[in-house]
Amino acid sequence: MIYTGFEEDRKYLTEKFRHPFFEPGVGLENEAVKSGVMALAESLEGEARPVVKARCFEYVCRRMQIDVNPHDVFPAFGCYCRDDRPLTPLIRKWEDEVNRQQLRKTTLERIHERNVAGFHSMWKDFDHSVPDWEAILSLGFPGLRDRARAYRSERVRSGTLTDEARAYFDGLEITISAVLECIGRFIDYARSRHGDDPRIRMEIDCLEQLRTGAPRNTYEVLQIIYLQFMFCEHIDRMQVRSLGNLDRMIGPFYERDLREGRFTEEQIRRFFACFLMQWASINNYWGQPFYLGGTKADGSTEINDLSFLILDVFDKLSIPTPKIQIKTARNTPVEFLNKALDMIRRGNSSLVFVSEESIRRAMMGLGYSEEEARCCDIRGCYEFSPRAHGNTTGPGYINFLKPVELIFNDGADPVTSCRCDCGAPRLEEIRSFDEFYRAYLTYLDNIIETEIACADDFEPHLHRINPASLFSITIENSLKTARDAFSNGSVYNNTSILSGGFGSAVDALTAVRKFVFERHELTLLEFRDILRRNWEGAEKLRLRILHSPDRYGNGIDAVDRYAFALAHFFGSKINLRPNARGGFYEASGHSARMFVIFGERTGATPDGRRAGDEMSKNLSPAMGADRNGVTALIQSVCAIDSADLPGDFPLDVMMHPATVQGREGLDAMRSLVRTYMDRHGMAIHFNIFDAQVLEDAQKHPENYEGLQVRVCGWNVRFNDLCEKEQNAYIERARSIAE
Questions:
Q1: Phi/psi of residue 126, nearest 5 degrees
Q2: Residue 247 to residues 135, 179, 342, Cα–Cα distance (Å)
Q3: Sign of the dihedral through C-alpha 428, 421, 122, 327
Q4: Which residue stretches of 195-264 are H helix?
Q5: Which segments within 566-638 are labelled E, that is strand?
Q6: The pLDDT of residue 475 is above 90
Q7: pLDDT (tens digit, 9 = 90+) per residue, 495-540?
Q8: Interhelix angle for 433-458 vs 105-117, to 10°?
Q9: Digit-coded pLDDT (tens) for 603-642
């Protein structure tokens, strides 16, 4: 049991953001708020954008609908809808202005044409910031305002308060003051509606403290984390891609609360259950991350009693989000790993293990200090950055399989006719596999270079599109420099280039080498005609390719050396290359959902893929390609040097339930995690599936409402996947059972 009476609260908590209810007259509905924002912004035309956005933020805080409910201990903010946030129309207007006035016409044309053709996928990324939670917890909202005022005063004294700096500090002042004013709205509403309810009185006391100072106990810490998230992501339109290192940050408060008798363990479980359910209700497709564990300066683990409590509450809730990242090292207690692994094999798989040693190796290779690596934040799906010092955008993904399609079509996408003229030979001119491989790299190089050129054109304008006041006020280097922390005011202002279809590309190259140039079963021109027919009339060849042992993921040296080579080429082109914001680029093996989207935009390919089918995801093999067991899978993935892909290095593993049963199964899972990390793998997560269960779930979804699937770096309910995506998991589960 999570806590006594939880089931009475759960219905409200589940529906809180999905089907919100607000009393009439308590604020404006979302459409009215958006209209008011745009009218206010128009009236402020000519003012600096940080000030305009801050005034609009203030407007939302004063007028949005609010609620405080006895079934919850966290207040409700209007109607939370990521695609319909109050400031979205304003941000889109400013983005359109930057596109028209600041960017080269060729940049917009290239982005659009190549996005549609599936060469890459690009956008202006505002989705990967992590505030300085240490500053938030130690200073509170009023302390953040006082610190910002002190930095402003210093500039006044030194005569360095330029117009730009003044606008920056004005934006911070208006924004954080609006936060405090809105907390006052929650307090007044709670007193007027539910002032006699003991739980509401506790919430009022909590909010009163956060309006005047820093949090003092477990509940107040959870409250300020929740409030920062809601104000920043819901209103200021900046994603908060980690709720922080919860067990390390909250552990001292938890221990003191129990020691001094402020709260019982059951009360703290209630706080965490309500806290986690906020994101279960919001239910963003990609999940909301936080992380556990780490290593202290003395080399001991950060895992503590609260770590176990958090996992236990999450386990009992059985929800697909939030998603939990576990910093894992040799010092991580076996019992904690076992608890997490047992959750996974029972279906609570919204967990990923990230290797501290491998992260340290990758980060120090980019010039970060060992201490920055030890203290790094885990953010997003499994990415990492120096805590409170780094902000890394992810504006684009590279389609690793597209260059193969371009070779077979002489540089043109066959659907859109978008061309990639980069000096690669025509198909009929290629005489050897070495020439084919060089042509592949020529096209890949062009796609990478074009994506970087486009990012360098638009990334200097991020602060003009979406000033990040609520994020910036937490970052001390931003205050010192009076520059937007998301754009160029962090210590490290880096850019990650991500990828999709990596394993499929290795398989496609291997198939061309084997069947065209080694066995001479067909020519390149004949292969081209087969692919244009989408394998029609060549099903036997397609099946032989699909069932060939020479595929990435089977521990075959002749295949894996190309995996190493492609990753090394990708990393060498990108890592430490200066970006347009004073930072550098880094290469990533993370695909997110691009393995599906790129698949839809890519025709049939030599690896046996039909047109429109999904590709491999992350650094994992294509669905069903790995047939030699999980040991061979790890051998293939770890043939790549993870330091070549410091942006991220994730592996997805699917196993049959029979292989992980009992104590031996748990030991096998833990050994697998250790082996992967000993070989410098960075992130690993699991799906434990029986194909028959998935097939039955597809036929009778009403019987499997809680069945979760690990998609990439997040979980979704199996019932929420489209039939095509469900079929891919079923096919994969069948292959591991063979």
A1: -125, 30
A2: 16, 26, 20
A3: positive
A4: 198-212, 218-229, 246-260
A5: 585-587
A6: yes
A7: 999 999 999 999 999 999 999 999 999 999 999 999 999 999 999 9
A8: 130
A9: 999 999 999 999 999 999 998 899 999 999 999 999 999 9
Q: Give the position of tokens 């991020």.
A: 462
The Cα-based distances of 108 to 173, 405, 455, 458 in angstroms read 35, 24, 11, 9
**CB within 8 Å of 421: residues ≥ 6 apart:** 411
CA distances from 719 to 57, 180, 710, 715 (A): 37, 41, 13, 12
Tell me which amino acid residue 338 is.
N
Q: How confident is the model at residue 333 (pLDDT cuts 50, 70, 90)?
A: very high
| Alpha carbon distance 506, 535 (integer Å) | 19
Residue 274 CA: distances (Å) to CA of 128, 221, 268, 271, 359: 25, 13, 10, 5, 32
The DSSP output letter for 426 is: P
**Mind listing the pLDDT tens digit for each residue in 179-218?**
999 999 999 999 998 778 999 999 999 999 999 999 999 9
Task: Give dist(CA 580, CA 457) in Å, integer.
Answer: 8
Task: Give the Cα separation of 224 and 243 in Å (integer).
Answer: 11
Q: Where are the alpha helices (DSSP H) in 261-355?
A: 265-282, 305-317, 334-345
Rounded Cα distance, 722 and 724, in Å: 6
Residues in the chain: 738
